[in-house]
Design a protein that fits this description.
The chain folds into two domains: about 1-225, no CATH class; about 230-445, no CATH class. By secondary structure, the protein is an alpha/beta fold. Strand 7, helix 11 (about 255-265) and strand 8 form a beta-alpha-beta unit. About 40% of the residues lie in helices and about 15% in strands. About 45% of the residues are buried. Strands 2-1-3-4-5-6 form a six-stranded parallel beta sheet, with helices on both faces. It has a five-stranded parallel beta sheet with strand order 8-7-9-11-13. A two-stranded parallel sheet has the order 10-12. The protein is built from 15 helices and 15 strands.
């Protein structure tokens, strides 16, 4: 199978993860732009180079496109770029002849509204007015018109940027009517219960659009969808009495987040373990999802974990931004999940990325076990070793090799139990020069 994949940006979870997942099946030929073409925290994507690259790749069975990359230069630039609607429309119109007649799975974001005064991924004024803009948006959505205790030129700029992006999303709906997309998704990134983004989602749905809570993982969920064979999944929650709770940064219950990702990924949901091909174990939270970055604690998993009778995968969403140590401890007492582990960032991020790996491994025509083991080493070391533990021990990007060593030893010993352990060299990089994400570079030599 030949797949074209245009990521949101050059982060490891957006770029490397797609490559690592597809490598599990040697029958998949992945076409992905050179990493240097893509955007970063401070650099916009080289859109012209990506368009030229798209024109010159061979015929593929599926095209998975992050439209924000092609329209704005990336997800973060979509909030910052000052180009007019006319400029962006002219740019994106060049995509139409490239994708006409192709199997295209595309997504575009509904511009987020972060509830903080950090401007690292926003316009400059967010450092002073971010929380107030969030409150203004929230209250207007919940109560109707409201006063803005924000300078007029700032609120005008913010509203006009939103309107421009919203109009671009409506343009994609017109393309959908023309039959240019097999699947088109509008993502609700970092969403709350109320806000301008929630209202825009409702309007897009009225116009025939399909929305989904999440963002970074959606290209991976669409990758799963593009592999069209159906797999029967039984969702098994570790806290079944709390599946109506809403995750941080989302606007739907954890149950609906799980079901929505499964539906988008093209899986069949079954109501009995006995009827499933794979059990999806979801380590969900009780009253409130924890948040390791913000220091929001929650009750960890406190049971003895008994693996399902069927092959399973584990989605650890008890915390945002990292794994639940008590749950991973239980997994390490048993055989690790045969279809993978994930605890990457938000609940939607965790679920979508895990489902892509499930689909590729289950359907693999030429299964590469070495590639699967590499993927698992990265996920455990990033989501568990670093995000849930080592990250809180450092003040800024630094050499973490010694701090990560205990986690390396535990996971490698468990993955290669009763097998010859390859020589594994692991390095840690900070691609965006911040603590929020690392790049786990794994080399295996047999």
């Amino acid at each position: 199978m030949k797949i074209c994949f245009v990521p949101i940006d050059n982060r490891p979870v957006c770029y490397n993860l797609a490559k690592d997942i597809c490598a599990i099946d040697e029958d998949i030929e992945l076409f992905i732009p050179p990493r240097e073409y893509l955007g970063s925290l401070s650099k916009y994507a080289n859109v012209e180079a990506i368009f030229e690259w798209l024109k010159n790749i061979p015929q593929t069975d599926a095209m998975i496109l992050s439209l924000d990359t092609l329209a704005y230069g990336g997800l973060i630039p979509s909030r910052r770029i000052t180009d007019s609607y006319e400029d962006i429309k002219k740019r994106i119109e060049k995509l139409k002849p490239i994708i006409k007649g192709k199997q295209v799975y595309a997504f575009s974001s509904i511009m987020r509204i972060s509830n903080n005064n950090y401007n690292e991924e926003e316009k400059e004024y967010w450092k002073d007015w971010g929380k107030k803009i969030f409150e203004y948006s929230y209250n207007c959505s919940k109560n109707g018109n409201c006063a803005a205790d924000i300078p007029k030129h700032i609120i005008d700029d913010y509203v006009s940027t939103r309107k421009r992006n919203f109009e671009i999303n409506k343009l994609y709906l017109e393309w959908q009517k023309e039959g240019l997309f097999e699947t088109l998704i509008f993502s609700k990134d970092d969403c709350a219960q109320y806000g301008f983004n929630v209202e825009e989602a409702k309007e897009l749905e009225k116009l025939g659009g399909k929305t989904k809570t999440g963002a970074d993982e959606i290209p991976l969920t669409l990758l799963a969808r593009a592999i069209k064979k159906e797999i029967k999944i039984f969702p098994l929650f570790t806290e079944p009495d709390y599946i109506d709770r809403i995750s941080n940064y989302e606007d739907v219950s954890i149950e609906n987040s799980v079901l929505g990702q499964l539906e988008l990924g093209g899986f069949k949901i079954v109501d009995k373990e006995a009827n499933a091909d794979i059990v999806l174990v979801i380590n969900n939270f009780k009253e409130k999802q924890g948040e390791l970055v913000m220091g929001w604690e929650t009750e960890g998993y406190n049971e003895v974990f008994m693996p399902p009778s069927k092959p399973y995968a584990a989605a650890d969403v008890r915390y945002a931004n990292g794994a639940d140590n008590s749950f991973v401890k239980e997994l390490l007492k048993n055989n690790l999940p045969e279809y993978g582990f994930s605890a990457w960032n938000t609940s939607a991020n965790t679920l979508g990325s895990l489902l892509a790996g499930i689909k590729v491994k289950f359907m693999a025509k030429k299964y590469n076990k070495q590639a699967y083991n590499k993927l698992q080493i990265i996920r455990y070391l990033d989501d568990w070793g670093y995000q849930a533990n080592v990250r809180s021990q450092i003040q800024a990007p630094c050499d973490i090799k010694i701090l990560m060593k205990p986690y390396e030893e535990k996971i490698i010993d468990k993955l290669f139990k009763d097998e010859i352990t390859p020589k594994i060299n692991i390095n840690y990089l900070y691609p965006w020069n911040r603590k929020f994400e690392i790049e786990v570079d794994v080399e295996q030599n047999f």
